[in-house]
Specification:
With about 475 residues, this protein is mainly alpha-helical. It has one domain. About 65% of the residues lie in helices and about 0% in strands. Helix 6 runs antiparallel to helix 7, helix 7 runs antiparallel to helix 17 and helix 16 packs parallel to helix 18. The chain is globular. It starts with 13 loop residues before the first helix and ends with a strand. The model has no long low-confidence stretch (mean pLDDT about 90).
Length: about 475
């Protein structure tokens, strides 16, 4: 480790300890834990706990785990619950509650308890990253830097049709998502290279790929792919166009957060009902969004309080475990090991989604027969396994694994561009949003295998050469 003092990481757990001390005051306990994540961001992203990597300018290493993975994962998991907290206190569309409004103290207690778990998890996650963040990575292979723009474009053009093939092969569809994401990341990165080089051919091809991916995201019915497609392009363009990217992409992302709830709500109502085609549903959703004038109506408030954050679902799991349902201990890890086996080799393998939904039904989060998916997040599964200790251990392992894989990618693929920006961000995007144990362990395992296969192919083609 770069620094021989492990005790320095204890600083990250101070907000969690304070939130425990303030438990008698539920609102203060919640706010301390919630603000604690911003404290952790400050301490880690400014290098107060451990110096940030100096092998590249800061703007050219944003895809590393300490930056993007932490900001997206911890930001989504730990910081978005503030709106739900306000709704528990009686706020509606940011309007103060009625003076006679009675706060549900039981729900407020659960909300504060869950936020404390979030704070503990964030501290453990950041510790896992920092303890294994050792830059610069000693590289074993190198590549011709002049060929990078065309190589990235080639990645995009090959990985997309491959993903479509895997989607149609029974038992191998799990490879579709990772290759599809790799195609998007490589195409976007190729575009960021092509524009400064004024390579007209590559720029046109990459723009076509980018808008195709954006249209797919727009018509997916989900907000996350749309936001990520804009965010990633901004990050890749930022090193060369700092002021322009800040001036354009930050307002775009803000508008997306404001407008997407209305857009997606209308789109789903029309497209998923089967009454309209995808194109017609898209047009109706755009019209409804533009006519809303960006106002924060009921749809947006519902999005902020119940869909932007998953704390409402977390409170139900905490309420039922361990009071009514005992901790799962190693059962979820055992199920995860089963999920790794491809259905091609185990045709009768139990449905992973069904296994996950069993604990959702048992906790009363949703009822059997409801046409809704409410799979627990990674941190929730960590709690369901061993309570607070499970959160501490699992979240530390989560951060450590993300950093170790990023390290390995840079070691094998000659540094940051191909290692982290392309391979790690393209194959291991699951780290950005913590999925249920069974899903994320399966994705990470097979993504790692895919990474090694890609490495072997590049070595065989002499694109990567031993130093």
């Amino acid at each position: 480790m770069r620094n021989n003092s492990i005790g320095k990481y204890a600083i990250l757990f101070i907000p969690w300890v304070l939130s425990l001390i303030f438990q008698p005051n539920l609102a203060l306990s919640y706010l301390t834990a919630w603000a604690g994540s911003f404290f952790i961001f400050y301490m880690t992203l400014t290098g107060k706990i451990q110096p940030l990597p100096t092998d590249r300018p800061l703007s050219e290493q944003l895809m590393r785990p300490i930056f993007l993975v932490q900001i997206i994962f911890a930001g989504y998991t730990c910081c978005t619950s503030i709106f739900y907290f306000l709704s528990v206190l009686g706020y509606q569309n940011f309007h103060s509650p009625n003076p006679f409004y009675l706060v549900d103290s039981g729900l407020l207690q659960l909300t504060a308890q869950c936020q404390r778990y979030y704070c503990l998890g964030h501290a453990a996650f950041a510790t896992g990253i920092l303890m294994f963040m050792k830059y610069p990575i000693k590289q074993k292979y190198y590549y011709d830097r002049d060929k990078v723009p065309n190589l990235l474009l080639l990645f995009a053009l090959i990985s997309f049709p491959l993903s479509e093939i895997f989607l149609r092969v029974p038992g191998l569809s799990q490879f579709y998502t990772q290759l599809n994401t790799l195609s998007f990341i490589s195409g976007t990165l190729a575009l960021a290279f092509a524009i400064p080089l004024k390579n007209a051919r590559n720029t046109i091809i990459c723009l076509a790929l980018y808008f195709f991916n954006f249209y797919q995201a727009l018509t997916s019915g989900f907000k996350e792919p749309i936001i990520i497609s804009v965010l990633v392009l901004g990050i890749f363009l930022y090193p060369n166009y700092k002021k322009l990217v800040a001036a354009i992409f930050i307002p775009i992302l803000i508008f997306l957060f404001l407008l997407l709830p209305t857009f997606n709500s209308v789109f789903r109502q029309n497209a998923w009902s089967g009454d309209d085609t995808t194109d017609d549903a898209t047009k109706l959703a755009i019209d409804a969004t533009l006519n809303s004038n960006g106002s924060l109506g009921d749809t947006n408030w519902e999005f902020l309080t119940s869909r932007l954050s998953e704390i409402a679902m977390f409170t139900k799991f905490v309420q039922s475990t361990p009071n009514n349902i005992p901790y799962y201990k190693t059962k979820l890890l055992q199920q995860s090991a089963e999920a790794i086996v491809p259905r091609l080799f185990w045709p009768s393998k139990p449905s992973t989604e069904d296994m996950i939904m069993e604990r959702v039904y048992d906790a009363g989060v949703v009822y059997r027969g409801e046409l809704v998916s409410a799979k627990p997040a990674f941190i929730v599964d960590a709690y369901l396994s061993y309570g607070a200790l499970g959160v501490l251990m699992a979240m530390f392992a989560y951060g450590a694994l993300a950093q170790l894989i990023a390290n390995k990618a840079e070691e094998l693929f000659g540094g940051y561009i191909l290692g982290t920006a392309l391979i790690f961000s393209g194959l291991f995007q699951a780290f950005w949003r913590g999925l249920s144990f069974e899903f994320i362990i399966n994705v990470i395992f097979w993504s790692y295998i895919t990474m090694l296969i890609i490495f072997k192919i590049l070595r065989t083609r002499n694109i990567l050469n031993e130093i």
